[in-house]
Amino acid sequence: MTTSAADFVDSLGMDGHEWEPTGGHTAPFKAAHYGYGAGDHGFEVLAVEVTKQPGDGQVRELWKARQMNQAVPLVVVVLPAPSQSDALVAGPAEADLSVRAMPLKQITSLLQEALSQKTSQAASRALREHLVTAGDSPFAGLVNQGLFADHAL
Q: b/e for 17-26, b at 16 or more Cβ within 10 A?
């Protein structure tokens, strides 16, 4: 079952708006919809449909084209290409611009948790905490730091 960008934004309880990727950010991106969460300065989620799986650099460039140095945290969700099972996610800030492949249900759950926060800062913090290892570890949410660090003194 494929999900459209508009349906994905609606499933998060956001008022969706259409956005057209412009300039050199068109292929392989098709339709895109975005919405803002409640709270201070909002929190933006951009869902994008694709014709084929884009590279990490293309996703980062799309994030930068949409974000345009605004103070609003932005998460770009590239919905799975027809031949793929995982979606790609990037954001919420330029410092966190790793592109991760994850199941769409997991991304939806993480975004719903972030959107339930009262401020954009709290939402960004919640996403950073959960995205740190979500794509890199079989133990989602377990961060390799402090007591759980795997280094020896």
A: eebebeeebe
pTM strictly above 0.90: no
With tokens 């919809």, the residue in question is 33
Ranges in the chain, pLDDT < 70: 1-2, 22-26, 38-41, 96, 132-153
**pLDDT, tens digit, 9 for 90 and up, residues 52-68:** 999 999 999 999 888 88
CA-CA distance, 102 to 80, in Å (whole number)? 10
Q: Tell me what percent of the chain is helix, strand and coil, each rounded to the nearest 5.
A: 35, 20, 45
Over residues 6-20, the pLDDT tens digits come to 999 999 988 889 988
What count of Cα atoms within 13 Å lies in the side-chain half-sphere of residue 30? Answer: 12
Give, to the nearest 10 degrees, the angle between helix 120-134 and helix 104-115: 150
Structure-token pair, residue 115: 């959107």
Structure tokens at 116: 């339930």
Q: DSSP state, 120?
A: H
Q: Are 141 and 133 in contact (CB under 8 A)?
A: yes
Q: Indicate if the alpha-carbon torsion angle 4, 7, 126, 124 is positive or negative.
A: positive
State the residue for tokens 């719903």.
Answer: 112
